[in-house]
Amino acid sequence: MSGIADLVIAPVLLPLLAGAGMLLLNGERQRAVVAGLNVAATLALVCIAAVLLAMSDTGTREVYRLGNWPAPFGIVLVLDRLSALMLLLTNVLALASVVFSLARWHRAGAHFHSLFQYLLMGLNGAFLTGDLFNLFVFFELLLAASYGLLLHGSGLTRVKAGLHYIVVNLAASLLFLVGVSLIYGVTGTLNMADLAARVPTVAPESRGLLEAGAGVLAVAFLLKAGMWPLSFWLPTAYAAASPPVASIFAIMTKVGVYIVLRLSLLLFGEGAGASAGFGSDWLLWGGLATIVFGTIGTLASQDTARLGGFSVLVSSGTVLAATGIGQAGVTSGALFYLVSSTLGIGAFFLLVELIERGREPGADVIAVTREAYGDEDEVDEAEGDVGIAIVATMGLLGVAFIGCAVVIAGLPPLSGFIAKFALLAAALNPGDRSGAVPGSGWALLVVLILSGFATLVAMSRAGLRIFWASPDRTVPRVRAIEMGPVMFLLMICVAQTILAGPVIRFMQATAQSLHAPAGYVSDVLQTGARSGRHLEGK
Amino acid sequence: MELVLAIGIGTLAASGVWLILRPRTFQVIIGLSLLSYAVNLFIVAMGRARTGAPVLIAKEIGDPSKYADPLPQALVLTAIVISFATTALFLVVLLASRGLARTDHVDGQEPEA
Predict the structure, then answer these.
(1) Is A156 an interface residue toward B (CB < 8 Å)?
(2) B2-101 in CATH: which number?
(3) Which end of chain B is more exposed for a tag (fewer CB within 10 A), N or C?
(4) What distance in Å separates the CA atoms of residue A406 and residue A426, rounded to the nearest whole number?
(5) Average pLDDT over residues A220-242
(6) Nearest residue on chain A to B70, judged by CA atoms?
(7) Do A140 and B94 touch (CB under 8 A)?
(8) Strands A76-79, A62-65: pairing kind
(9) Boundaries of every domain in chain B
């Protein structure tokens, strides 16, 4: 256990050290150092995640045993294709939003950069861990950081939204604990691989209790994922958050989605005996209801940031519904969609602030914020001139807006279209002999097409209002450091479109290994053979 | 003992749920605390309620069924620490909301009667 294999723990350790180091440095004078450290750490995380992704694509799962205790007894971090993919997605999005924040937002409150690194630590840990209780710890870590980040910039709107967000998430954390302890009470283990091995052998009289535990646990995750009817907190909270924070929050619902995807296939996949397929109908119909709710919300929202919040719901509903269908082909399409929609929505949240800057409502919010928080930390307008002002700002903003709209609504030629196409093609060709299209496939087709159309309508309406129908607007002052991250995220969507072949092959390999959890179980439980120092006494 | 534990957890959870549905932030924070007590007790109960059984296993292991399960106790410790910290954090937000909105209503404004 040395060298490159140790890199698996780096996505957790690096933000921990960076975040703690920044706390020591924090202060007005060292703000540039702290900001530089944050960018450097996030950049390093992107590189590490890319290396890990390349490592995982060889098909082997890296199992990192903390304290070198063998798997069911100690906590393990497991790197497979899915977790590597989520790591890279998280850190790429984080890089964009941290660079964006440098223009002005990081000065709107204290400890932005430390909280940001702790959020990344929680996210990365949640994607890597192979232990349910450890997952709870990482969840709490990322939530605690997210409470601070949501309140970043302060002001009544944020505190109000933050209050609701915190209460909802604290209640969900308690449900998480109830679910975890029920599962532990029945199976006697919290290691995910060990759980997967024990679920088929649970006695029939305890099975009800196990499924109740899994159900309670699922409610906690689905609340984070924003499944209807657990999602009413989400659009308000996301619209209230400062733009770089809202952008990184786009990945936070995906943590819930990731865990649901991972655990439902691992614990209740085809090999789970009597519990096989537990909850998949709930995921399918709940996901569809979420898409419908999100769609109605996008049509109803007057505010552009709320439009983004409801797009988050549509996106996680789509992945949840696809998880509920439970076929490898659909899952791979859903993963492609997950990446593209998260990047698109992340870019959209950043873009919203730039666009709104020239309009009155946006200026209102900033003015209120400044008044409520006290102005010494706020940016002076004159200071805003330091960066390079962009020529033809409006044109560039317009192109970026169209790019976001096309990715989020799923129109050709960008990646959103390929994602939805892959998803629906797999849902309509289930690959069994009969050739009949199942009802779930039709339902998904109808709902997805309609929601794509409605998103397009809502986006064009917002675009018309912003770019064409507001004569008294001033051209917003936009700096390269703010436009860069938006373009960066959109360019990744373009790259994902151009390289759709290799990307979808990767997603298919990921989905295949998710749907065959036996490999995961044996990899995690038997790595003791590699360096069995602690195994002698067994 | 099982009955007392079950009734205790039930009472705490029921009071907690009732309180977090109340409109004042102070009631909500007390409700969350009561709920977290209920959940902590529940975790201990899931390790099977036993009296007088030690957690640590002596050098000669003997019969493991004579010992209490140490894992739920470790879990409950972690859960206590985390819920304590998040409650403290929530208290700060509660005070900020009280200061900014000049009301302790959870929506930041009094309902129009």
Answers:
(1) yes
(2) 1.10.287
(3) C
(4) 22
(5) 87
(6) A188
(7) no
(8) antiparallel
(9) 2-101
